[in-house]
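Sanity check

After download, print the first record. It should look like this:
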Amino acid sequence: MSVEIRVPQLPESVADATLVAWRKQPGQPVSRDENLADLETDKVVLEVPAPISGVLREIKVQTGASVKSGELLAVIDEAATASATAATSATTAAASGNGNATPAAAAATSASAASRAGPAARRVIEQNNLAPGSVAGSAPGGRITKNDALAAAAASTPAATPAAPAAAKPAAPVPAIARAGRSEQRVPMTRLRARIAERLIQAQSTQALLTTFNEVDLTAVQELRARYKDSFEKKHGVKLGFMSFFVKASIEALKRFPVVNASVENNDIIYHEYFDIGVAVSTERGLMVPVLRDADAMSFADVERGIADYAARARTGSITLEDLTGGTFSITNGGIFGSLMSTPIANAPQSAILGMHKIQQRPMAVDGQVVIRPMMYLAVTYDHRIIDGREAVQFLVTIKDCLEDPGRLLLGV
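Expected structure tokens:
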């Protein structure tokens, strides 16, 4: 019996998707629930699981094509399961008998390795004609990252062989300029990158964005983390990072200045009486901003656990569209890449975003004395249509006060 494989129902806000990779090829056996193909939307990568076990008989849509919900992708022949299993067993027996893998066995190994590679890694593997089985994965579960694929591609490039000494010849005129490797490569944007570009341009063209800055002394936070990080991790099973302090400080500031947690819809200001905080996560596919729902009800451990879970799932491509939808305020940390100062762009329709930066030891005047302190520049970009400068500045000062005296977060003062 033949079973049709169709595009799963896409989320309501997604019109179509791009078929970025087939994980199986015609003639290969498939198992029930095994991923057959990757569909990339402007936010997430969706998998197309096999509804039954059988053999992939025919592919109807080629890689790179745009598809919509319900569109026919491929056909699986369920009746071919038994013969495919027998063929696989025979192949395995033959390989074990002579110590050499047959082409079918090599293909199976290659397919298994390819299933552990993310979309970005598979593109590198395909572009460099690498055998997936030759790429070692460094991510949890043996998953292959883009960096793994790039390293394998570099290792597979043959080194230049020194030429044999040639007989001496008269020196020839040397060109004034000699350049090598002036090649170009045109690569289409991924749907996620195109969507990010669209959202950034939309935010800058529809909002009156302005950025205000301040700096915060993180001595108290660092001392608190150093004092309790071991017991915190032992009790909660997660490390105590900086982000939970910034999330909690931001919520306290948002409670005092509700307009920063608001958004604009037509001529109305929508005040959100809940705190869904987006935390930017950098991935191989681009920047994602998963949302911590009702973050005001979370403990420090809940915040750290939520961020760690989102980061892991974002980088392995298993994050869902629901994880990225909504949010009333966002936080981004360019400091992990070494940024000292920047002006982040608000994640529309949100009206503000907090930018964290690199912690840097700097001389500061404290009580008439020059001391060295761990300082960080903070930036808040806000929509000046509804947020005045006074509110934005006081909002940022509130965050600064909470971080310089973390006891405020416990006492609500």
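If your output differs, re-run the checksum step. Summary of this record's structure: The radius of gyration is 27 Å.
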